[in-house]
Amino acid sequence: MDKKTLYDSFTQIELDTDTTLHQISKIKKEVETLVEENATLRIENQHLRDRLSDLEKLQRSDEEVVEPEMSKSRLNLEKLYEDGFHVCNVFYGSRRVNDEPCAFCLDVIYGERR
Ligand SMILES: [Zn+2]
């Protein structure tokens, strides 16, 4: 291999590597977006389930005693929180950077009234 060919090869490899790196960061961003979107949907799903179960309870409030279903809801939110996502209304569904604790989230999960 002469020197020019060698040099050209390196230049080509450098360009290819740049392109690949660019693609990797693009895909990484897309994955992050999807992961956060998924967390948001899980939280919204939980809230809708809570709402539905509230409505169902209202409908049969005369017949049955209210069971502690909220604890299941809290457990689901707690799991999401432990997976590294905000479940609070402030940062809703976004990732907790470096697992930073969030007082709003803790209030949602462990607060007195829900
Ligand atoms: Zn939070």
From TrEMBL:
Record's keyword terms, sorted: Coiled coil, Cytoplasm, DNA replication, DNA replication inhibitor, Metal-binding, Zinc
Where's it mainly located?
cytoplasm
GO BP field: DNA replication; negative regulation of DNA replication
Q: Which residues form a coiled coil?
A: 24-58
Q: What is this protein called?
A: Replication initiation control protein YabA
Q: How does this polypeptide assemble, per the annotation?
A: Homotetramer. Interacts with both DnaA and DnaN, acting as a bridge between these two proteins.
State how the cofactor is bound.
Binds 1 zinc ion per subunit.
Instruction: Please provide, alphabetically and separated by semicolons, the GO molecular function terms listed in this UniProt record.
Output: zinc ion binding
Q: Organism, per UniProt?
A: Carnobacterium viridans
Q: Which domain of life is it from?
A: Bacteria
Question: Where is it located?
Answer: Cytoplasm, Nucleoid
Q: Which InterPro entries match?
A: YabA
Q: Give the protein's function.
A: Involved in control of chromosome replication initiation. Inhibits the cooperative binding of DnaA to the oriC region, thus negatively regulating initiation of chromosome replication. Inhibits the ability of DnaA-ATP to form a helix on DNA; does not disassemble preformed DnaA-DNA helices. Decreases the residence time of DnaA on the chromosome at its binding sites (oriC, replication forks and promoter-binding sites). Tethers DnaA to the replication machinery via the DNA polymerase beta sliding clamp subunit (dnaN).
Which positions are annotated as binding Zn(2+)? Answer: H86, C88, C102, C105
- What are the required cofactors? Zn(2+)
GO CC, any one term: bacterial nucleoid
